[in-house]
Specification:
5 strands; 2 domains; Yope Regulator, Chain: A; alpha+beta; 9 helices
Amino acid sequence: MNTSADLYFADGCGRCKFGGTPQCKVNTWRGALLHMREVLHMLGLHETCKWGVPCYVYRDKNILLLTAFKDHAALNFFNGASLTDAHNLLQKAGVHSQGGRIYRFKRVEEINKHKPAIIKLIKEAMNQAEVGNIPLANPATINLPDELVNVFKENPSLEKAFYALTPGRQRAYLIYFTGAKQTATRLARIEKYIPQIIKGIGFHDGYKKAGRHK
């Protein structure tokens, strides 16, 4: 997986076979991505690379990701739900999204049209980072499945490790575990990821290291 923001804009994230080829999603939206990158640099955000994509940091806090998808490019605000989105630019990335929100774009013209509003959102996120007012997603909105509760009773070390994970990582596991309809399947999923949880590895971290989840 790519560990350089510069390399991302040249060859993509490195998580699929199209990295460094004309088929890479970064090539589809390259002009818009580079234009948005200039805006982020202008605002003084520190650029790094996390999870294979450019991540922008302020006061040692992750503010947003800049990434390419098949149908669009996007700014992914880690705590976008807390921002004042007067122009309704931000959307949930998925049905299970809590704090995160994304701004989708395809062309430089779209960015320029919304630039004042985009900059306002980014500056608000930066201000939150400066004053420490960044709410965390609450994993309690998804109840623990009975199977996990029972496993915790038998394995207190697992329970301790689970609650040592960040709220977002806890939530990702809960979404996956509760997505199974049958008890046997839920138990199988839990058992499979016990070693990963014990090691403090997030559900999606494991995806990136080992491939597609089953």
